[in-house]
Write a structure and sequence with these properties.
- This protein is α+β, with helices and mostly antiparallel strands.
- Among the domains are: about 60 residues, no CATH class; about 90 residues, no CATH class.
- It is built from 8 helices and 7 strands.
- The radius of gyration is 27 Å and the shape is flat.
- The N and C termini lie far apart (about 55 Å).
Amino acid sequence: MLRGSCDFARREDYVAFLRQVLDQLNAGRQDKLAQELDVLRTLPARRLQDYTRLQVRVSQFSTIRVSGNTYSVHSCLNGEMVQIRLHADHLDVYYAQRHLECIPRLRGKGGHRIQYRHIIDQLVRKPGAFAHYRYRDDLFPTTRFRVAYDTLCRFHSESKASREYLLILQLAAQESEARVDAILRHLIDAQQPLSAHGVKERLNTGDNDPGPAVSVTVAPVDLHIYDSLLSCPGPRAVTS
């Protein structure tokens, strides 16, 4: 309402906007502010905590539940208790007094944020569970990974397609997601067979140049075709 749009390019831009609004509102309140300052106590020597501490146990599926949402952590923490520092916009994960990672916080309830690098080693050992994995859609980091999996399913059984795809995803975690994505793009565009072995060979040889991007041209819609609807006879009335 104040700026005509709620879209901000960065979080810093939003903070700057709020600061500007507060400064404008407080500009006419300096006398009242001075009265308040006269009776305020001295600030504490140390900054107060701006986060909430939580102790949660990592499930056997490498996930934790925080404020009604599900997040993945590394599979080596399965069954362990981790400490969560829950901030307004992110959460920090600690184990044995060591900071492991920072995860963007989800809004609302019932959401999930699953990072394939956390669980890929576990899934590779049990590929049969992938087809019915609850958070399977989170394990397609780009559209090409999804296309690669669907292509494997068309030419192989469900179990083999899952195994090949997970091995490809493991290569992305171990080597480079961008390089594997480029290789998949080349193989898919050239309609060549997909396999983890083929992707690994291209990674080892450095043959992952995707070539020029595919140019897509969409013809403009001729709106005059809708005029023909006016000249079409309408439905005949049904008489009993």
